[in-house]
Amino acid sequence: MKNQQAANRPDNTAFTQQRLPAWQPMLSAHVVIPGFLLIGMAFIGIGVALYITSQNIQVLEADYTGTGQYTNCSECANMQTTPCICNVTFSLTTLFTAPVFLYYGLSNYYQNYRKYGVSRDDVQLWGDPTRSPADACAPYQYIDSKPIAPCGSIANSMFNDTFSLYQIINGTKKEVPLDGKGIAWWTDYNIKFRNPTQGSLQDAFNGTMKPVNWSKPAYELDLGDPNNNGFLNQDFLVWMRTAALPDFRKLYRRITGGDYALGLPPGDYVLQIEYNYAVKDFGRKKVVLSNVTWMGGKNEFLGIAYLVVGSLCIVMSVVMLVVYAKYKFADENA
Amino acid sequence: MDFSALRNLISRYCTGEENWVDSRTVYIGHREPPPGTEAYIPQRFPDNRIVSSKYTFWNFVPKNLFEQFRRVANFYFLIIFLVQLIIDTPTSPVTSGLPLFFVITVTAIKQGYEDWLRHKADNAVNQCPVHIIQHGKVVRKQSRKLRVGDVVLVKEDETFPSDLILLSTSRDDGTCFVTTASLDGESSHKTYYAVQDTKSFNTEKEVDMLRATIECEQPQPDLYKFVGRINIYQDRDEPIARPLGSENLLLRGATLKNTEFVYAVAIYTGMESKMALNYQSKSQKRSAVEKSMNAFLVVYLCILISKALINTTLKYVWQSNPNRDEPWYNGKTDHERQRHVMIRAFTDFLAFMVLFNYIIPVSMYVTVEMQKFLGSYFITWDDEMFDEELGEGALVNTSDLNEELGQVEYVFTDKTGTLTENNMEFIECCVDGHVYVPHAICNGQILSGSSGIDMIDSSPGPDGKEREELFFRALCLCHTVQVKEEETVDGIKRGIHQGKATSFYISSSPDEVALVEGMKRLGFTYLRLKDNHMEILNREDEVERFELLEVLNFDSVRRRMSVIVRSSSGHLYLFCKGADSSIFPRVISGKVDRVRARVEHNAVEGLRTLCVAYKALSQEEYHNMCQLLDSAKLALQDRDRKLAEAYDLIERDLVLLGATAVEDRLQEKAADTIESLHKAGMKVWVLTGDKMETAAATCYASKLFRRSTQILELTTKRTEEQSLHDVLFELGRTVLRQHDSLTHDTFSGLSSEFQDYGLIIDGATLSAVMKPAQDDSSGNYREIFLEICRNCSAVLCCRMAPLQKAQIVKLIKASKEHPITLAVGDGANDVSMILEAHVGIGIMGKEGRQAARNSDYAIPKFKHLKKMLLVHGHYYYIRIAELVQYFFYKNVCFIFPQFLYQFFCGFSQQPLYDTAYLTLYNISFTSLPILLYSLIEQHISMDILKRDPSLYRDIAKNCLLRWRIFIYWTFLGLFDSMVFFFGAYFLFDNTTFTSNGQLMTTNTQMIFGNWTFGTLVFTVLVFTVTLKLALDTHYWTWINHFVVWGSLLFYVVFSLLWGGVIWPFLNYQRMYYVFVQMLSSGPAWLGIGLLVIISLLPDVLKKVLCRALWPTSTERIQRLKADGVFQRVLPQGHDSLLDPPQCTTET
Predict the structure, then answer these.
(1) What's the average model confidence in pLDDT over B387-402?
(2) Which residues pair with B138 in a beta bridge?
(3) Helices B763-770 and B724-741 sit at what angle, rounded to 10 degrees?
(4) CA angle B658, B664, B669 (to 5 degrees)
(5) SS3 at position B152
(6) What is the distance in angstroms between the Cα of A171 and the nearest Cα belonging to chain B?
């Protein structure tokens, strides 16, 4: 009888009796008001730092769509013949400190269309150009039942304007060396994308077709550098990382070397553009020069947001203090 | 044999309905009756296999799937999954398939396991051996092979293999003892009787000779009802018909006791046995929370559909520009171009539905179910609800209603056995107005051995002496008490120290035991029932023997019982005892007035009174009665009604002997419990079958009525004087006047200041009130009655029939506020109200386990109700309320950014998050913290909840799930998701949100794509949502820390892993290194921190301000506790929680 009772009796442990030792915090004014103050102050500090840093970033933008209010490259906008070369000139009054990056930017360009975003074949890009491409690549899957390499809309629509930058020194153009290495993710270049390893690149792509819009096959993307071809072309990799929003920038080149290691000195410059890419029907394109700091590119939002939230916190803590004092006061009075 | 098979066939074709008639004919031993009688029509009965399992090995998968997909939620997700399979949708079918699969699998495993256990149990039962008599021999067979009509030999302590009709027993008198503990929990031994004509059979041979058929009703689940008839064929004669009743029916599952063996014939086998019929579960009760949940779900479904519609419409508006519909860089296939625009629009709509479907949380149902299932263990584990005496703790029969315990507004309680101990003590008896008290009672302890009588009034004369002895004999004879000679049962037992050292009286009614014992102390000892003779030891130590001729059993409608006995001198008597209301109208002589006065006096003292009457019968009268009874007993149809009529005819023209008084003490802490329930804002109603005065006394004792309570009576006594109409209106006016003048005060919830009303109503008046109105003038009695009740803090309903109890509960349930009701009771007569109320609680009492079996929760004692409601109910409610709200909130946060993203991706249904994130968000990243919260959160400590019942008011009326709060949570979700999305948007937009990549390569600046954007939003989302829960948690045990921080860590580790490997089974590698790259960017860290804080700020702010400006009493207590100033009395406190004496005990 006794044993049976003991067996029926529930375990008397802290857990079963819901009496586990516990920390019981409470969002009371004592904790929250100083907390808000602290957060507010910290945020204002961070915000100021971010804002100042962001202010120090130099950005130079030029729209070169050639239509509308911007007249850069207007001569190319309506021309049917390609390539069309046009120039954008600008002058710097102060040193554009290194590291300087050259971007192109597209707006109203939906790289995040769902169908667009999946229109690629990651297996093919992993070094197998001759495999039959994934169905997602359609309608850029086959041409005459030969697989397109690289297949799909993304690859097909690769940005193909080219830029070269010259400094005008005493009327003569001095080319600013543009570094196209390392503009893509390291992992993309080294792991996620691969070229076929057997034989020459051209042989490996034998039996495939170039994308419809490309003027050159994949293995001839960069004639100057044999290692920058096929699926491992840096510009291609950058393009393949589809942008999140319809207005986006992509990195084109870095200015690192030679006489420009410290940045672009003051002076006149001309940016020579080979105008190929047609966006004027729906959007615009631009070219951007910018430098970066520890916190990335120019981003006033972050700094301002920190400042706003920080000051809100402080205001709130004051409000709470007032409310709390009043409440307490009433409390003691009654 | 061939013939019978043929006939069988014919009969099945010709008399197709034969199997469906209301009665069945059983051929004992499968022997045909002699020719010339009815045609032998073998009916087909199921075999004796018990199948409690739902599935077999083969049908488990389809059947279980079918069962599961019958649930709306599962079906919805199945549809989504199928849509994803069929049309080209933004997310892979995996995202909804995997959670669905997970949910289905978990449920299937749980159900499969339970079913496997049932299979095991079934097999054990079905294969246990039974002894069947075949051709005069005993054959061992497996239980499942037993057929209807088989004669079975059952030995002592064996369990009956099916429902059996008792033919003969090893005892000469043809009785056997049975305990039905496994059926209804009553461990007392019940006597069953063999059929008179067969009780002499003692060997297999004899039994095998028997030719008889049994006609009986088709099986029905009522354990206590059975009617049938046995036709015994003896050579050539007309068959002898005998009635069969439930006293002849041995139920499957019951156990034979104290009887060497019995022969019995199987009539209901397998799934038709009464036990199996009782397996079928009761009606499903749904909690208020579940209803709110479903309402919210509908809202979300509407939101989902409107979102999809809006996006589809906008998509086509936006796409009217061909450059947007099909820009050159995003060519369509020819197939896509050719598709009709309507079809495209429809598939787009479906695709949006799929994209946003996660707003309906698939895992909410699983989580809620797990929460309920696991959470209910805390009730069974609770040591404070463990009763030493019973050796049992609380039982949870359904975990669906845990949170409903926190919502109770009306408590309906039984009196006897619930409020009181049901531990009867004989106090006094009154014979013709002379009062006898067993004198040896001191401090409630009976000093055994000393028996004597204290006569309070003057001694009666010699005539009185005779009456007195008749009275004592009546009480010794008019009962169904058994004498148990050993101590093996836990039933109602008291030692009788007469002759054998250990003998006990056992009865299903504690009153009877108390009475018989009282008689013993007054000198008349009931010894035993032997050979139909009751033996009494009288004062002179002589044994008197009375032949027991008939027992007219007690029932709660008649409220009396009778026996007819023949004394050794040949005189015939009918003794009747019962409630005064049912005896007095039937009495023609006796000192009615004096007895009535005494009865009323006792009732006011809170004693239970019974009246005793008798009638001497002539031989002829007895004969008539026998005929009356026999014909009623033999009836196959309407036997109960006919019996009642017969009883009514027999039990009349009685001579009143006297009355008894038995005390039933209040249960321990009953008053305290009732007081707590009152303070918690619950209205307590006592529903009892007892007399008004007794019940009222109990109510005063249990503090249901206080001295200050103004009692309103609505009883037969009053309605006799005035018409019901007038009484009702008068009471209504009284109450309402009070109410009106105090409406402005009631706002504060103060009950002590204005007049407290208590209402007493009796069964008869109640049925008059409930009677549907005949004309307009008498119209709305019901409404007026309800109005009165609403304004009374306590109501006592006495003289209630069991069904009336349920009626009352139903009436309140259906009243316009739809309050949540709780019924608590211990006896079979409470079952109807337990089933009717929103929450039914059974007390594991002395009147068997029926109430506990039919209840949703069973507790050992009434006092445990306090903890059950005030602590467990409160906890479960706040836990599940948070669970439900949080689930909707986190899914709004999850899906709304995806909706917003559509505006920036050309409404192309581009998912914002990766497939893995979409899939795992609900089932792993954010599931455990909320589950754990909903299991162990304690916003306030248990002791405070118990000490301050008024805290219960804080959660009354489902207040945490009101629309206002739901909308708050939804807007919080919307706000947060806007912060996530636009925060990330501004970080990305127009500027380069980049990584300077110091970690990866030197001095590179790389651009992030859309997956990084989604991952950033998702990371903020997971952190915000988890931290929001962390902010809501008031009770941080190590498990909380482990789970909350653990699941955040899990998210990070998972993301690292998911992005860290090229997964060969995926045909895309879009997440490769995305997470690491994101983390290598300084602005990402800053952005995540900022956005998380912005999302959490408003909620924190709201909480702090609300707490300071409009604190609930719960929050005040929390603050007091946090401040450590429990001793300090808060001013303007209107709640008991702030009473100084109660607060000082806190350490």
Answers:
(1) 83
(2) B133
(3) 90
(4) 160
(5) strand
(6) 33
Please check whether residue B331 touches A, CB under 8 A: yes
Q: What is the mean pLDDT of residues B298-316?
A: 92
Angle at B445 between CA B441 and CA B446, to 5 degrees: 60
Asked whether the predicted pLDDT for residue B886 surpasses 80, the reply is yes
pLDDT band at B747, cuts 50/70/90? Answer: very low
- B954 is a catalytic site residue: no
Q: Is B1120 helix (H, G, I), strand (E, B) or coil?
A: helix
The closest of A74, A57, A56 to A65, measured between CA atoms, is: A74
- B548 confidence band (pLDDT: 50, 70, 90): confident
Mean pLDDT value of segment B893-914: 92
Q: What is the pLDDT of residue A329?
A: 53
Q: How many other C-beta atoms lie within 10 A of the C-beta of residue B625?
A: 22
Q: Which two tokens stand for residue B127?
A: 């294969």
**Token pair for residue B275?**
């036990």
The C-alpha atoms of residue B167 and residue B169 are separated, in whole angstroms, by 7
- Distance, in Å, from the CA atom of B384 to the CA atom of B404, rounded to the nearest integer, reads 21
User: Residues of B with CB below 8 A from A103's CB?
Assistant: 992
Give pLDDT, residue B776.
Answer: 52
Assign residue B433 a region (left: φ > 0; alpha: ψ between -120 and 50; beta: otherwise): left
pTM for this model (two decimals): 0.80
- A124 contact B CB<8A: no
In this predicted structure, what is the pLDDT of residue B487?
A: 44
Other CB atoms within 10 A of residue A325 CB: 12
- pLDDT at position A7: 59
Token representation of residue A92? 């710097």
Q: B843 by DSSP, 3-state: which?
A: strand
pLDDT band at B559 (very low <50, low <70, confident <90, very high): confident
* Alpha-carbon distances of B1027 from A149, B960, B1021, B1033, rounded to whole Å: 47, 20, 10, 10
Q: How many CB atoms lie within 10 A of CB B465?
A: 12
* Nearest to B289, CA basis, from B1106, B971, B966: B966
- Which residues are within 8 A (CB) of B293 and not within 5 positions of it... i.e. 6 or more apart? B364, B368, B884, B961
Phi–psi pair at A159, nearest 5 degrees: -65, 125
**Residue A21 vs residue B1006, higher pLDDT:** A21
Per CB-CB distance under 8 Å, the chain A contacts of B487 are none
Spatial distance between the Cα atoms of B256 and B156, rounded to a whole number of angstroms = 5
pLDDT band at B278 (very low <50, low <70, confident <90, very high): low
The H-assigned helical ranges of B87-144 are: 93-127
Burial of B532 (0-12, 13-18, 19+ CB in 10 A): middle
With beta carbons less than 8 A apart as the criterion, state whether B54 and B114 touch.
Answer: no
Instruction: Give all strands (DSSP E) within B857-997, no chain letters.
Output: 857-859, 994-995
DSSP string, B527-588: EEEETTEEEEE-TTSPEEEEEEEEEEEEETTTTEEEEEEEETTS-EEEEEEE-HHHHGGGEE
B1053 has a chain A CB within 8 A of its CB: no
**pLDDT (tens digit per residue) in B511-535:** 888 888 888 888 888 888 777 788 8
The mean of the pLDDT values for chain B is 80
- Residue A71, pLDDT above cutoff 60: yes
Q: How do strand B821-825 and strand B410-414 relate by DSSP bridges?
A: parallel
Task: Give the C-alpha distances (Å, rounded to integers) separating B509 from B218, B413, B880, B942.
Answer: 30, 19, 42, 38
Sort out which chain B residues have CB atoms less than 8 A from A246's CB and list them.
904-906
3-state secondary structure of B12: helix
DSSP of A271-289 = EEEEE----TTT-EEEEEE
Chain B, residues 347-406, CB within 8 A of chain A, namely 377-378, 380-384, 386, 388, 391-393
Q: How confident is the model at residue B171 (pLDDT cuts 50, 70, 90)?
A: confident
